[in-house]
Amino acid sequence: MNRNDTPEMPKEEARMRILMLGNSYIFINDMPQMLADLTGAEVVHHTRGGARLAEQLNPDTELGARTQKALITEHWDFVVLQEMSDAPIRTRDKFLRAAAALCRQIHSIGARPVLYVTWPYKKGGKQLEKSGFDYNEMYEGLQKAYREAAAAGNALLADVGTAFYLQSEKQDLYAEDGSHPNEAGSRLAADIIASAILGR
């Protein structure tokens, strides 16, 4: 190096970017910020209360148009997929088709899909009673559907559902409606998702 050469500065490492696609199970209690704090990533969420994964594929909807544009024009390292609470059981084929299509699209842009496995409604709660499911039946149905989708889509599995199943007897993880997570539940979800992404 001669005297006029300036030393090359090390390039700043690009910040990890995570896109979360789903509904209120993601945005309640500001869980994306919890995930950002745990991973150091920039976390963006495209969510709507009651949204299904099929909507994220549909450019004729406001949510789908936004998601499709983001997947095509922006860089993402991980894309988290979360289906509406009982839809993987009630409309299993539709869920599997949507998850497969999204996983293909995510792989095609060089990102990694992550399936955010959700939980059964609160044991003994009105939401579970109204659903017509048995608690264990709902847990097992969600597990089976999400695991099949993850295997088919070569996706990481963030098994929040099993963490809820094992820990909800010891601590309260549910909001009053017996469906959504309370703040502790959202923190648990963020931790499981972060662990899947970071390979812990």
Compact summary:
50% of the residues lie in helices and 13% in strands. With 200 residues, it is an alpha/beta fold. 40% of the residues are buried.
Strand content: 5-15%
Global structural class: alpha/beta
Radius of gyration computed on alpha carbons: 19 Å
Model regions low in confidence, pLDDT < 50 over at least 5 residues: none
Based on CA inertia axes, which overall geometry fits? globular
Largest sheet: 5 strands, parallel
Number of strands: 5
Which bin fits the share of residues in helices?
40-55%
Count the DSSP helices. Answer: 10
What is the average of the pLDDT values? 94
**Sequence of strands across the biggest β-sheet:** 2-1-3-4-5
SSE string, helix = H, strand = E?
EHHEHHEHHEHHEHH
Measured distance between first and last alpha carbons: 43 Å
Structure, explained:
The protein is an alpha/beta fold and 200 residues long. The chain contains 10 helices and 5 strands. Strands 2-1-3-4-5 form a 5-stranded parallel beta sheet, with helices on both faces. Helix 2 (31-39) runs parallel beside helix 10 (183-198) and helix 6 (92-108) runs parallel beside helix 8. The longest helix is centred in the last third of the chain and has 19 residues, at 135-153. The protein is globular. The model has no long low-confidence stretch (mean pLDDT 94).
